[in-house]
Specification:
Strand content: 5-15%
CATH superfamily of the largest domain: Metal-dependent hydrolases
Shape: globular
Order of helices and strands: EHEHEHEHEHEHEHH
CATH class of the largest domain: Alpha Beta
Radius of gyration: 17 Å
Strand order of the largest sheet: 1-2-3-4-5-6-7
Helix content: 40-55%
Distance between the termini: 11 Å
Structural class: alpha/beta
Number of strands: 7
Length: 240
């Protein structure tokens, strides 16, 4: 499994978890919500004007064997305060810096995107990295997914696919080519049916697999083998 870093307070811990378990790998990055602009998503003041030093720290962590990707990074203009131009600018700067770091290290990028479709695709296209990446916990439409696929990206489907009002995610989960599909939990949030209302956990990915296998009309075992191979193709530093 991939344990994803989201901020200055947890990236070292994420790497430590990966180092402690043979089956766990890490990604290191700064989530766009760390540049928030409201009382619910306050900005991490340590990031302001300090992006080069943050990227140096990520680069040092990425040199460790169990770190196989850069992220979570991206753009999130959904939450209150995130539509402020200063917040948007800070997120764009961070996203571009993550993309360039990943390109320089030939590592894939774990991308979060919410209500920023055009901007996200434009940034990925501008980075033009051969290592590509994944749009994780995908919640957008097929048009965006298709554009990302054209740029070499993978699409990762979370437990949201089981939610009653997630027709757009189900359409994407059906249409993504087999060699570009990943599955996830995004734990501890977004627990899939039948665990709604509970804290999410990695074991619940089994429910995502069962649902997506039925949705795509595929044998469960074949889907599992496909996603396993896709992960290792996207993250070649991971050793099975």
């Amino acid at each position: 499994m991939l344990c994803i870093g989201i901020g200055l307070d947890n990236i070292d811990g994420v790497v430590a978890i990966a180092d402690s378990f043979a089956e766990v790998y890490a990604a290191v990055g700064i989530h766009p919500s760390e540049f928030g602009g409201s009382e619910y998503h306050p900005a991490d003041a340590r990031l302001s004007g300090n992006l080069p030093a943050v990227m140096e720290r990520l680069a040092a962590l990425a040199a460790q064997p169990k770190v196989v990707a850069i992220g979570e990074t991206g753009l999130d203009f959904y939450h209150e305060g995130h539509d402020d131009e200063a917040v948007k600018h800070a997120q764009r700067e961070s996203f571009d810096a993550h993309l360039q770091l990943a390109k320089s290290l030939s590592l894939p990028v774990v991308v979060h995107t919410r209500q920023a479709r055009e901007e996200t695709i434009a940034a990925i296209r501008a980075a033009d990295s051969c290592a590509a990446g994944v749009l994780h916990c995908f919640t957008e439409d097929w048009d965006m997914a298709n554009q990302a696929l054209d740029l070499g990206y993978y699409i990762s489907i979370s437990g949201i696919v089981t939610f009653r009002n997630a027709d757009n995610v189900r359409e994407v989960a059906r249409r993504v080519p087999p060699d570009r599909l990943l599955l996830e939990t995004d734990a501890p949030w977004l627990a899939p049916v039948p665990h709604r209302g509970k804290p999410n956990e990695p074991a619940f990915v089994a429910d995502v697999y069962h649902f997506v296998a039925e949705l795509r009309g595929e044998p469960l075992e074949r889907l599992a083998e496909t996603v396993w191979a896709n992960f290792h193709r996207l993250c070649p530093k991971a050793v099975s």
